[in-house]
Amino acid sequence: MSNFPRYAIYYLPAAGSALAQFGSAMLGYDVVSGDDVPFGEATACIADWRDITADPRGYGFHATLKAPFGLSGGRSESDLLWACATFAETPRAIPQIAPVIRPIGRFIALVPEGPSETLQQLAADCVRDFDEFRAPLSAEDRARRKPERLTPEQVGYLDRWGYPYVMDEFRFHMTLTGSLDPARHDELLALLRGQFAATGIDRIAIDRIAVLRQDARGARFKSIAQFELRSADY
């Protein structure tokens, strides 16, 4: 069984930024304050929008860099926060992406328009550098990842890093919906693209990491700390 609380290392937009406000309004949840927020006017008119966004609401508007994990024996929350602060102080190239709204399988997410080596490197560094804090996967948690549906490489990553979508399998995305009926895909994709275009955001710096905590199974994740990354050009 999973250890609780669980922690995750995510990218979160800066609190109060246009991107944070957009994501919070789409999901109806502010992952920094831990408060419910009103849906945007356009999505609030969709009768089942709360149901459509139920799954991503539990995680908040984010991009995963190190997937949720219980702490390994002898490690504490304060140890993890100290390690994140140290990581953030290491000079590095700050990824910049041109954001677009696209489908990923049956859900819709904000993703980079094209590949980014610096973003892939940041994600890989997070996976490696924070792995000492991760408790080993239980048999139950491993089964929950449905390894029978994964490729051999993904199973190898699951067993080595506790998550199958890392390293060359990593795809940066900020989820906006749960799994959708294909018949509604085009309608909702057009709506979300229109809502995002209205923000005027055409570039996003992946310039911070955040530590989030989930206190019990089924509880929502909440940000407990954010650390701005130090640019190599600083």
UniProtKB/TrEMBL annotation:
InterPro entries: DUF1045 (IPR009389). Gene3D superfamilies: Cyclic phosphodiesterase. Pfam families: DUF1045 (PF06299). This is DUF1045 domain-containing protein.
